[in-house]
Amino acid sequence: MQFGICHLSIVPLRAQPEDSSEMSSQLLYGDHFKVLEQRKCWSKIRTAYDNYEGWIGNVQFLAISESDYDQLENDRNPRHTSDLVSFVSSGNNSLIPLVMGSNVGPIDIFGHNFDGDHIDCTQEKSHLLDTALLYLNAPYLWGGKTPFGIDCSGLAQMVYKINGYRLLRDAAQQATQGEPLSFIEESEPGDLAFFDNKEGIIYHVGIIMENNYIIHSHGKVRIDRLDHTGIFNTDTKSYSHKLRVIKKII
Fold it and tell me: Residue 90: its pLDDT value, please?
């Protein structure tokens, strides 16, 4: 078994080993993984954080030892950047930009330096919405996980990740976590609302706010109304998503 780590700002994780393939997710700086299969230009990997599989270019990661991988796995207080954009400096005095939620715990592996703001412990549930609002107006991007492009489940995962809680990657996977609630009135800010399509498949997720509002990624990260029917889009004055279930994760 081989192991690797992302040493670049953002790396696309693709469904197939080719540049034109769908981007299903992204790796951020400091994300580590197992290498399941290696080809001349591509490697199939499984991320340590959420067991998500996909293909990345061989020139876009560094190989690490099994002991380094195990050390990262045993780190119970990873340091996630908390600014929209920050930087690490490398040995040749060049700067590498980092997006919010990057893991700067492994900087010693890279020989980099970081002196920006970060979170290294579990935060109160009330902090979730403060983090979510930092993504407001970020454009929707399928597979995206950054303030420069993010999808609905990526928003939920990153908001929880930065605050010390672990969510799976896709909305349907996230819906298997936590405790279901019967009514919106039972929910608290920071709980997750899930939405299904006509076939009954969960395909969308948002973070519940106070006073029956929800923040979610649909075209962009936006705030809309939420009721028992679903999400009422404040621009189109119509329902955009049908509510399936509400989950209390923490």
Answer: 83
Angle at 226 between CA 220 and CA 231, to 5 degrees: 50
Tens digit of each residue's pLDDT (9 = 90 or more) over 180-194: 998 899 999 999 999
**Residue-number span of the structural domain to which 178 is assigned:** 127-248
- Tokens, residue 186: 């039972």
Q: Are 223 and 212 in contact (CB under 8 A)?
A: no
Cα 48 from Cα 195, distance rounded (Å): 27
* Residue recorded with tokens 């715990």: 105
State how far the Cα of 140 lies from the Cα of 150, in Å rounded to an integer. 5
Q: What pLDDT is attached to residue 84?
A: 94
In the structure encoding, which two tokens stand for residue 26, read together? 């992204």
pTM over 0.90: yes
CA–CA dist 228, 243 (Å, integer): 7
Report how far residue 132's alpha carbon sits from residue 162's, in angstroms, rounded to the nearest whole number: 10
Q: How many CA atoms lie within 13 Å of 109's alpha carbon, on the beta-carbon side?
A: 23
Domains contained in the chain, number:
2
Do 139 and 194 lie in one domain? The reply is yes
